[in-house]
Write a structure and sequence with these properties.
Peroxin-3, two-stranded antiparallel ribbon, membrane, transmembrane helix, single chain, disordered C terminus, Peroxin, elongated, protein-macromolecule adaptor activity, mainly alpha
């Protein structure tokens, strides 16, 4: 038996060797394939987790943008309301009405909380709700004006104020999206590079933790200085914007009398004329309203209190290197911000933000409160929160008094600038191209432009 077995192996050793080689190759190949499949599966799971973390962090970043806008907006709103004291003009008109009624001996129905304009001209116009009249910036009383002068000033001031607030809100929303998404990407890259330098395979943490040890003190300092540049819009940019809006409003709404009738189509046309004057053509640059000109960066940092007043020179008067010029990462962030603001997609997104806000004011608030139109459910219209969408369809012959429009615009100005929740900001955030634009910024991992490490 043993001899037969040896004979068999001797005669078939070649075939047996080949067979063993094949079996071994199959085994090794199977193990290799299995290991590669396992590796691919683990890599896909890691990528999926990383993408999910990145998605959640991006969504959290957009929520942070909303809170940031609501936190910063009152700074500009307070100054705009103070500079354009519509309630103070309303208060003066109330006083004139009350004095006239008292002099004639007629019973006064006027309260300082509402302004009724049924005067000797016989026209009855809806009341204007007003907040307590603010004091002027200087504290000095304004010179007395006639009723016609007050109504004309009320008309120009109320419309200018509301439209300026819409533009300011849209610009702040746009700038904040750019800033926080650039910083979100920058912090993400800092984490990636930090982990790569430590040669670790642990998944990248994307938690929003200000104490993240992966970000250096220098990174935090750059981030803080970069976010400070919203100061320009909140203190200087809106003033430039207001002057342009005011000139346009005077040209367009100047000939109208508060007692005149106005239709929704007329109101749309007048608003469109103002927007064309303010926004210009598709090549209009919003950069001067959002960021300071080259050379004024240190001015912004000083005015915002980020660097001390004496930072630019020593006690002997010798000029020193500016805090801005000595920070190349900050320069790159501002350069990329400028490019995004002036890019065609950026201008298009801004135009859509303006459209969304003006649509809320005209097609919803004015339609409902000035033209008394009832909202109708939109067929098949369901928003992202599962609520039925409604639209205001204004009849072609529907008209109202210009004073009614002023009353609504006056009240809406406070909601545009101080409303919580802010319907106008919510409408802007629903613009799909804004989300797409933010995603492009956040995911543009071009190390030649976006790397925070130098």
């Amino acid at each position: 038996m043993l001899k037969q077995t040896r004979t068999f192996f001797r005669k078939n050793r070649t075939n047996l060797a080949i067979g063993a080689g094949i079996v071994g190759s199959i085994y090794i190949g199977a193990n290799y394939v299995i290991s590669k499949l396992t590796e691919a599966k683990n890599r896909m799971a890691t990528d999926r987790i990383a993408k999910e973390n990145l998605r959640r962090r991006f969504e959290q970043n957009q929520e942070d943008c909303s809170f940031t806008v609501l936190a910063l907006l009152p700074t500009a709103t307070e100054r705009i309301l103070e500079l354009l004291p519509v309630e103070q003009i309303t208060h003066q008109l109330q006083e004139k009405k009350a004095a006239r009624l008292a002099k004639s001996g007629a019973p006064s129905e006027v309260s300082f909380g509402a302004l009724s304009v049924k005067d000797d001209d016989g026209i009855s116009v809806k009341s204007l709700k007003s907040e307590p009249a603010p004091q002027t910036g200087t504290g000095e009383p304004r010179p007395k004006r006639t009723k016609a002068q007050l109504w004309n000033e009320l008309k120009i001031t109320s419309i200018t104020r509301a439209y300026t607030l819409i533009y300011t809100l849209a610009l702040l929303c746009f700038l904040t999206r750019i800033q926080l998404n650039l910083l979100g990407r920058r912090n993400y890259l800092s984490s990636v590079i930090s982990l790569a330098e430590r040669d670790t395979e642990s998944p990248i943490s994307l938690e929003n933790n200000e104490n993240n040890p992966q970000l250096s003190q220098e990174d935090y300092d750059v981030n803080r200085k970069y976010l400070t540049f919203s100061w320009w819009l909140l203190h200087r940019g809106w003033r430039k914007l207001l002057s342009i809006v005011e000139v346009s409003v005077k040209q367009v709404f100047g000939p109208l009398n508060p007692r005149d009738d106005i239709s929704m189509s007329q109101l749309r046309d007048l608003t469109l004329q103002i927007r064309k004057t303010v926004e210009g053509d598709g090549e209009f640059s919003w950069l001067p309203f959002l960021l300071p000109p080259n050379g004024d960066e240190d001015l912004v940092l000083r005015e915002a209190g980020v660097i001390p007043e004496h930072n630019s020179s020593d006690p002997t008067g010798t000029s020193q290197t500016s805090a801005f010029a000595s920070s190349p990462p900050l320069r790159r962030l501002l350069d990329e911000t400028s490019d995004l603001i002036d890019s065609p997609p950026g201008r298009d997104v801004l135009s859509q933000l303006f459209d969304a806000a003006f649509n809320i004011l005209l097609e919803e608030k004015l339609a409902e409160q000035a033209f008394k139109v009832v909202a109708m459910p939109m067929p098949g219209g369901i928003d992202r929160e599962g609520r039925i969408q409604e639209v205001f369809e204004v009849p072609p012959d529907a008209k109202t008094k210009v004073a009614n429009v002023l009353a609504v615009v006056t009240r809406q100005a406070h909601l545009i600038g101080n409303g919580i929740p802010n319907e106008y900001l919510k409408a802007m955030e629903k613009v799909q191209d804004l989300s797409g634009f933010s995603a492009i910024i956040y995911s543009n991992f071009d190390l030649s432009k976006a790397s925070p490490m130098d």
